[in-house]
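[Discussion] Sanity-checking designs against the backbone

I'm trying to build intuition for which residues belong where. Below is a structure token string of 127 positions. I'd appreciate it if someone posts a full sequence so I can compare it with mine line by line.
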């Protein structure tokens, strides 16, 4: 009988510890959200997400695009290897080092950026 009581105590203590840690995490997250709100004026739950889709380009490198719900509600700014890459939702046949895409929601100006590493460019004349 003593083993059963000890076992129940351990389970209850573990559950209480998990609940306490969850409560602490939620309080910390709430405080972080309110400081984010105060600094930026944007609510953290208003963030958006998107995916970068890629396909191999026959000429060289990758063709990249943004996969996002309601694409007309955003603007796009590509940076390819540190230089300008355009404002379209896609870029074609890019290679080198990296591509960075900054997506901005038109309704409030909130921006989310992502980086994808690119394959090295083929040398001229190489097969």
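Best answer:
Here's mine. Compare freely.
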């Amino acid at each position: 009988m003593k083993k059963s009581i000890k076992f129940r105590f351990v389970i209850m203590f573990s559950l209480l510890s998990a609940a306490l840690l969850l409560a602490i995490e939620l309080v910390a997250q709430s405080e972080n959200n309110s400081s984010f709100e105060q600094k930026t004026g944007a609510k953290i739950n208003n963030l958006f997400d998107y995916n970068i889709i890629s396909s191999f380009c026959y000429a060289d490198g990758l063709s990249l695009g943004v996969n996002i719900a309601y694409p007309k509600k955003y603007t796009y700014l590509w940076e390819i290897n540190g230089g300008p890459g355009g404002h379209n939702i896609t870029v074609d046949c890019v290679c080198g080092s990296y591509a960075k895409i900054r997506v901005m929601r038109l309704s409030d100006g909130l921006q989310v950026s992502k980086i994808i590493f690119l394959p090295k460019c083929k040398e001229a004349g190489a097969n």
